[in-house]
Amino acid sequence: MDGPGALAGRYGPVPRNGEINTAFGVYKSLCCEYEIVVREGATFPQCPKHPNVPTVWNVLDIEIRPLRVTRKTNPDPPNR
Ligand SMILES: [Zn+2]
Fold this sequence. Notes:
By secondary structure, the protein is mainly β. The chain has a domain at 10-62. The protein is built from no helices and 3 strands. It has a 3-stranded antiparallel β-sheet with strand order 2-1-3, with no helix packed on it. It binds zinc ion. Zinc ion (ZN) is lined by residues 29, 31-32, 34, 47, 49-50.
C-alpha cells in the first residue's frame, strides 16, 4: 500500500542532505540505495554518486545489539 505519503518514513519526515542528524543510525539514499552510518549531531551528506541533486536519506530499520561473547571450552584442561 504505497500512498502519497510513502516517502515519509514511519519515524516522521525523511532527512535530506545538509540537515543535522538527531538519532544515530544507518541511512540509505533514495536515489541509488547508497548506505551510510550517520551519528547523532552529524550533518547528512550528499550522495557520493549523485552530488548534483538533493539527497533524501531513509533510515534503515536496524537493531544494534551488544556482541555476545561465548567462552571456548578449554582445549587443554589441567590434568591432575
Ligand atoms: Zn545516489
